[in-house]
Amino acid sequence: MFYKDERLALFIDGSNLYAAAKALGFDIDYKLLRQEFMRRGKMLRAFYYTALLENDEYSPIRPLVDWLHYNGFTMVTKPAKEYTDSMGRRKVKGNMDIELTVDAMELAPRVDHIVLFSGDGDFRPLVASLQRQGVRVSVVSTIRSQPPMISDELRRQADNFIELEELRDVIGRPPREVPAESRSFAANGN
Known about the structure:
Blueprint: E1 7-13, H1 14-24, E2 27-28, H2 30-40, E3 42-52, H3 62-70, E4 74-79, E5 81-84, E6 90-93, H4 97-107, E7 113-117, H5 124-132, E8 136-141, H6 152-157, E9 160-163, H7 168-171, E10 172-173, H8 180-187
Parallel strand pairs: 1-3, 1-7, 3-4, 7-8, 8-9
Antiparallel strand pairs: 2-10, 5-6
C-alpha cells in the first residue's frame, strides 16, 4: 500500500505506541522505524507526541525525547498533569490527541499518505477528514494483544491497517528492564 514517489508523514502517539509494543513484548527502535518508512516513500516529517512530567528531576522518557529530537523527529510535548485518584494512587494524564489532529490537518494538503501510530478510536473522525481531503491513511497498532490495542472503528476507517507485530523484525528490539516508577508514567501517559 506504499508508493515510492508519495509524500509521507508519520504521526506517532507516543504513549499508545509504547503500550502496544509493550503488550507484544518488544521495544521500538526509532532509528529503524524512520529508516523503514523513508524506504517506503518520500518522508516529509515524522512527528512524535508525548506528555512530560516537568517537576521530576529525572523523567524516564527524557533520553528518548532528546534522542528523537536530535535524530530527525519533530517532537511535540506538553506538561503532563499529575493527580491522585480515589484509591490514593498517583496518576499522570497527558493527552496529545488535539495537538496531533491539528498538525495532521495542517500538513494534509502537502502529503499523499499519513501513517498514524495509534489505536485510539478518537482518531476515527481525523482519519475520515484526511481521506476526504485525498490523503491515504495507514494505521499502525495491534489486534494481537489481549485486549486488542486498536479500536475496531479506527481500523475499519483506515485505508490500510499495519499490524505492529508484523513490523517486529524490522523496527523492534528486545525490551529492556524499566524501573517500576517509570512504568506507571508510560502506562498512564495518555
